[in-house]
Design brief:
Elements lengths: L2 E7 L6 H11 L5 E7 L4 H8 L4 E3 L8 H18 L3 E5 L1 H13 L4 E5 L8 H6 L6 E4 L2 H4 L11 E3 L13 H8 L7 E6 L8 H10 L6 E6 L5 H17 L5 E5 L4 H7 L2 E4 L9 H8 L4 E4 L4 H4 L5 E4 L4 H13 L1 H9 L1 H9 L1 H19 L1
Parallel strand pairs: 1-2, 1-4, 2-3, 4-5, 5-6, 6-7, 8-9, 8-11, 9-10, 11-12, 12-13
Helix pairs in contact: 3-4, 7-10, 8-9, 8-13, 11-15
Length: 371
């Protein structure tokens, strides 16, 4: 039987969840037909269309505007009637709280995909808790351990994101280094993430300030503001760069659609989170292009990065981060060894075929149990 799955999500921003959904759309899985329902137009919607995935736009939702919620719920009901999915997957508490009752009212089993560690105390968590899903899929063991704050005794399964390696272009890294004015003998450090404080940009800059007298590095920061508060945060980071006297060595690249190519052009990928990463797709993408990674020893990063592929430091410790970066900057052989172990580790964690089949099996068991 071909399992019909409908993924429901907001889609107004772009980060790890959006990259995962785009990867789902790009992967063909035997006996599984996937469709997508989003509230907002944006980069994710564009990528789903480019992949040829069936896409339903539900309309923008603002909780402060009840009519927008009602309209979007009706639109999802229409999409369910049109696609007749065997299971609806709601990604995040916000989505589950708003839309899970729509699928439930139509007799369609609902799965909840937990991408973040939940507290159970936010308004979105409290709203989601009203509709108990048939199963919860979790991106990591770390995330799964928080699920009890939402529902007790619920069945959960860890399904890592499917992360497909991008086709390699051997000339692209050299072109990017030339365009971005990185010297061939410089070690390029890259952070590619959402422009949010918990991603640790400030710690990275403070660590680089401790390395200001060492001449062998330059840093690229990829990712632009997607909300007003993120714009203010970026302004503060630019100011901090000038305070530290490293303005000529740090480049803010803005929002990019070529992050894997940037990683291939860089020498080290660094994301020193201040809060726990639920999984760490960025690290997997870096491993796929054989780049060593540096991150914080917390959350899902502990499940992704091992001693063979990178270095984890205490969160918020700029001095420890500076020491790790200094070691990698000065030791090309170590960078090569850590990078070489990356592709195998990435396949072990996020091979698209294996993770998509695992997702299908979990969701199929829900529909079979319901019948």
């Amino acid at each position: 039987m071909t399992l019909r799955v409908m993924h429901v999500y907001a889609g107004n921003l772009y980060g790890g969840v959006e990259r995962m959904l785009a990867a789902f759309a790009a992967e063909a899985v035997l006996e599984m037909d996937q469709s997508f329902a989003l509230c907002f137009e944006g980069r994710l919607a564009e990528e789903l269309r480019a992949a040829g995935a069936p896409l339903h736009l539900l309309g923008p939702v603002r909780m402060s505007r009840p009519r927008s919620v009602i309209r979007a719920r009706r639109a999802l009901g229409d999409a369910i009637e049109a696609r007749r999915p065997h299971v609806v997957v709601c990604h995040s508490s916000w989505t589950h709280g708003i839309f899970a009752p729509v699928a439930r009212a139509r007799g369609v089993p609902v799965a909840f995909w937990l991408h973040d560690a939940v507290t159970g105390r936010t308004w979105a968590d409290r709203l989601a808790r009203r509709t108990r899903p048939a199963v919860a899929l979790c991106t990591s063991r770390f995330a799964a351990e928080t699920l009890g704050r939402m529902w007790s005794g619920i069945r959960s399964e860890v399904v890592h994101p499917a992360v497909a390696p991008r086709p390699a272009d051997p000339l692209r890294p050299l072109v990017l280094r030339t365009v971005l004015e990185a010297e061939l003998d410089q070690v390029v450090l890259l952070q590619a993430s959402r422009m949010e404080p918990w991603k640790g940009h400030r710690v990275l800059l403070d660590a680089l300030g401790l390395l200001r007298n060492e001449a062998a590095w330059t840093c690229w920061i990829a990712g632009g503001p997607q909300r007003p508060e993120e714009g203010a945060y970026l302004d503060a980071l630019r100011a901090r760069v000038e305070e530290l006297g490293i303005g000529g060595r740090v480049r803010f690249l803005g929002q990019r659609s070529d992050v894997p190519a940037l990683m291939a052009a860089a020498d080290v990928v660094c994301q020193p989170n201040l809060g726990p990463e639920p999984f760490g797709i960025t690290f997997v993408e870096a491993m796929q292009v054989a780049r060593p990674v540096v991150g914080s020893a917390m959350g899902g990063s502990l499940e992704v990065v091992n001693e063979a592929t990178g270095i984890l430091v205490p969160p918020g410790d700029a001095a420890a981060l500076a020491d790790a970066l200094r070691t990698l900057i000065g030791d090309a052989g170590l960078r090569t060894r850590l990078g070489a172990a990356g592709p195998g580790r990435a396949r072990e964690l996020c091979d698209p075929t294996r993770q998509m089949e695992r997702m299908r099996n979990v969701l199929a068991s829900v529909t079979e149990g319901g019948r």
